[in-house]
Amino acid sequence: MKPFKKVLVPLDFSRCSDEAIKTAGDLCERYGADACLLHVYEPINYALPVNYPFFVPGQLENILAECEKRLGQSKQQAQAAGVANAQTQLLQGIPATEIVEFAKKHGFDLIVMGTHGRTGFQHALMGSVAEKVLRRAPCAVLTVRAESQS
Q1: Domains of the chain
Q2: Which of 14, 15, 43, 95 registers the highest number of CB atoms within 10 A of its CB?
């Protein structure tokens, strides 16, 4: 099996993402791989009148600053889990599309991401970013779930 050298870890800051960080940490430590922690902020699009701002001045900047802060915390978590060289990246757009394009552009060997394991109506309503990435990724994808709280 080809060793992994570049691991992409998309995060939504959920418990599932925490599990993905732990798994990626283990793999990076075993293979001496680097990791990139990626969060894709998806702006909500509503049909608004022309020239009507969706965000009040400074609001988007505050949201992105909070995302950067959480990425920094995730980086510390990844380093504690065994990732020697962890980078972070914040993008805006449709998460599955941005994850796949980022993986292609930067030549990742593996994507490790959490999945919520939704089924039925929730899956139909919410969709699955992990499933969309799995179908279109240019490399191997490992999905992990958080342990249930029961």
Answers
A1: 6-45+53-144 (3.40.50.620)
A2: 95
